[in-house]
Amino acid sequence: MQSYRKIFWMVTGLLMAMVSCSDEDFLEENRKDALTTENAFLTKSQFESLLGSMYRKVQNFYNAGDGDTDAWPLGLGTDAMFYPRDDSKIFNDWTQLNSFDGYSSRWYTWQYEIINYANTVIDAAQKEGVKWNSEEERDAIIAEGKFFRAFAYRNLTNIFGGVPILDAPVVAPKVDYTRNTREECWQFAKDDLVYASNHLPITASLPGKVTRAAADHLLAEINIALKDWDGAIAASTRVIDGSDGDYQLMTGRFGSRADEPGKNIYWDLFRMGNQNYDTGNKEAIWVAQMEFNVPGGTVNFGRPTIERMMWCLHWNFQKAGYSGQAQDSTGRGVAFVRPTTHTNYTVWQGAESDLRNTEASIKRKYYFADDVAPYSKGDIIPKSFLTTKEDSLLFIYPNWSKFGTDKHLDGRPDNGYVRDYYVMRLPETYLLRAEAHLGNNRPDLAAEDINVIRNRAQAPLVDPADVDIDYILDERIRELFGEEFRLLTLGRLGKIYDRTKQFGYETAQNSIKEHNNLFPIPQSVIDRNVGAKMEQNPGY
């Protein structure tokens, strides 16, 4: 994605220049050509530049830190994954989650930055003097702004509960915000998404741009949060049945490495270059763009860090004969995040032929790199060889192929896996509709939607009698682990505590409390709001 300048700050900031001049006329103010919010956005291209700042924020969700910081919305510390290096780390030890936590406060700030950008777009697009080619063009820009505003409120409301609703640009200091209710925030997001669904284009003008299908996908989730089951079914159906464009699950091998034997369609979905709709991936609804060797293409570090974050350190397992030198074929995982036992094993009980659980999709077999008596080079490393805690927490655990590759760009294992990130993929739309059908007391229809996904995966089909919300959450792990914002899903359902207590890492199980179903409002937000009381969530 192109590197966009943050025009918003240029527009709303104060530009000052210190000059020296013998003529005191320079002290006279002439604002005829001054850049303001009234004249900065007069053409579509100017609006596109500001919209680009919002897309860049989404890049940050996936590429902001070289560690575990990008993982926490994906479910760090819950039923899905944990930090294996230190039991005292936040989200292993949930008692450390407080109003001073930097992870969630950064998330809070990011969302309000998006909201501020979005409000500027929505407001400026409706002013006189903007050169639009048509009303449809104007409405599509407004719809894009409203989509992002709704997206940000969903990202806030699902984990913090009710937050202040801002429906216009902030142009003067304000320190008396109050929290709206959670339902009011979801309803506000819903209203924006209804507009976006009606006015966004069906086809993206550029890879990574949001479309009508993205709006309906998110609208389905918000309707579920509001228990509008029929509305959720209708929105998700528009994505699934072709009303929003030709979206369908990929069922045959495709893409850049489709001719390689021993792999499968699920593996193909995560090969570099295979993520975008315009290159043939018809289940890609919205994809965050990452580019190799393009300024701003990966936001930080010159590459996404997902392989380092999610893969184990087997290349450095010197006890098993490894040299400690990462190779193109091994990648350079650093084990910042490890899937839980539930994710790696429990959800796969009875999986049989499920393509998502094959060795191609989840590498479970590791081999001795040299002779280590009584084993020989090339022998499978047995579980009995893993005798220390670090052996199985850092060096050897299942590596999900969706997070890395054995053929890196330029052969560089440290920064040669640069793929785009699915923000929304069609299987999740099916699972949202299944959730809505379940809420509507139709487990038979919920099973039908789940089985579309399981049929593609060549997995045993589920019986309607076995479908409940926990089954859907497990299917989300099988299909969407490391893609969905797991914490937001569990937060929306009020199940952060329940699922972590039942399936999380032992330290997290022992430390999480029921009040952790909502995260604390950042203390910095409360302290700055001196004109009114910003209520904190209970328990913090």
Report what the structure shows.
There is one protein chain. The protein is mainly α. The protein has a domain at 306-417. The protein is 39% helix and 3% strand. The protein has 18 helices and 6 strands. It has helices spanning 7-12, 44-63, 102-125, 135-160, 182-199, 212-225, 229-240, 265-268, 306-310, 341-344, 389-395, 426-439, 443-456, 469-480, 486-493, 496-503, 506-511, 523-528, and strands spanning 81-82, 284-288, 338-339, 362-363, 399-400, 421-425. The strands form 3 sheets. Strands 1-3 form a two-stranded antiparallel ribbon. It has a two-stranded antiparallel ribbon with strand order 2-6. It is globular.
Short description:
It is built from 18 helices and 6 strands. The chain is mainly α.
Descriptive labels:
single chain; two-stranded antiparallel sheet; 6 strands; disordered N terminus; 540 residues; mainly alpha
Beta strand %:
under 5%
Q: What spatial form do the alpha-carbon principal axes imply?
A: globular
Mean of pLDDT: 93
Low-confidence stretches: 1-35
Number of helices: 18
| Helix coverage percent | 25-40%
Oligomer: single chain
The total of beta strands comes to 6
Please describe the biggest sheet, giving its number of strands, its sense, and whether it closes into a barrel.
2 strands, antiparallel
Measured distance between first and last alpha carbons: 40 Å
Q: Return the structural class.
A: mainly alpha
Taking all Cα atoms into account, the compactness measure Rg is 24 Å
Q: Going across the biggest sheet, name each strand in turn.
A: 1-3
Return the string of H and E elements.
HHEHHHHHHEHEHEHEEHHHHHHH
